[in-house]
Amino acid sequence: MGFKTHYDNLKVSRDAPPEVIRAAYESLLLKFHPDRHPQGSDTARVTKIISDAYAVLSDPVRRRQHDEWIAREEAKTKDANWSDFNQFDAKPKPSFVSTWATRIRAHVASMELGHAGMKLVSYGLIAAIFVGVIYFSSSKNDAPDLPATPIPEVYSQAQPQATGSLPPVAPAAERAPLPPIAAVQRPVYLRPTLTPRGRPWPVTASYLKEFKQLHTKGMSEVTIDNSGNGSDVFVKLVALEGTKAYPVRELFVPANQKFTINRVSSGSYDVRYRDLDTGQLARTERFTVEQTPMSGGVQYSQIDLTLYKIANGNMHTYDLAESDF
């Protein structure tokens, strides 16, 4: 492949999931951070390449456009290779040495020499041709190797493979600037006036009745504390079972209010929610709900979750993709 991609810049495969891409980005950013390298190094350029690559690959829309660009460039390379193959003549041709050796034998045969003389002259001329060919070949291979680049440049256009002598590279200051990548037009978020099932939002904190409640055989409680925020939120309590994740409760919590989810069965969960004013998605850390029989009854979990990172909040939050909500 004769071109660089953002996947090359972050050193990840094209099918890498978002968490792998983010981990690679953070690792490279830490490795090439300017504070860890002396002044005058190339870290500023490298960190910009890393940041530009992550900005594209962390955005589903821009990543899809980048994948389409890669596919087009690969198709061009494939077509060029196929054209070269069709022009190739598979019929073997006599080499330079064998052609001239044949001519020398014919010329010597026409001379009036004895058998030993003919043999001596022929071998001498053929040896001279071999020496000339070897010298000519070695003089062509004395070109110095190109220096290796520590990290690939961010992609802009396909870089053709070298097929002959390389043209001189102009200094960076003299090169024409690359055209900017067109900005992706993001859809404007509008606060939904109805729930996902087409009903009006509740006036107070409550379950969304159009959704079925699951995992209701326990005694544990999970309280969603939205009292420190000025935005209404649409909340999902999500069960985590191996590689499966599915919502077991859907609820609405207005700004500056709380709501307690009761009768929660034992298991692992997280809470995912949308800020209805901004459309921003987030999720909490994974947590475990336990219910343990005791001699005097049953010990069960009571978990309080404060949304966002507000003062005295007890749960970290993370960004969430639309497909995971």
UniProtKB/TrEMBL annotation:
Keywords: Chaperone
Domain of life per record: Bacteria
Record bears the keyword Lyase: no
J domain ranges (all copies): 5-70
Signal peptide per UniProt: none
InterPro entries the record matches: DjlA_DnaK_co-chaperone, DnaJ_domain, J_dom_sf
CDD domains in the cross-refs: DnaJ
Annotated PANTHER family: CO-CHAPERONE PROTEIN DJLA (PTHR24074)
Protein name: DnaJ-class molecular chaperone with C-terminal Zn finger domain
Organism: Rhodanobacter denitrificans
Lineage of the organism: Bacteria, Pseudomonadati, Pseudomonadota, Gammaproteobacteria, Lysobacterales
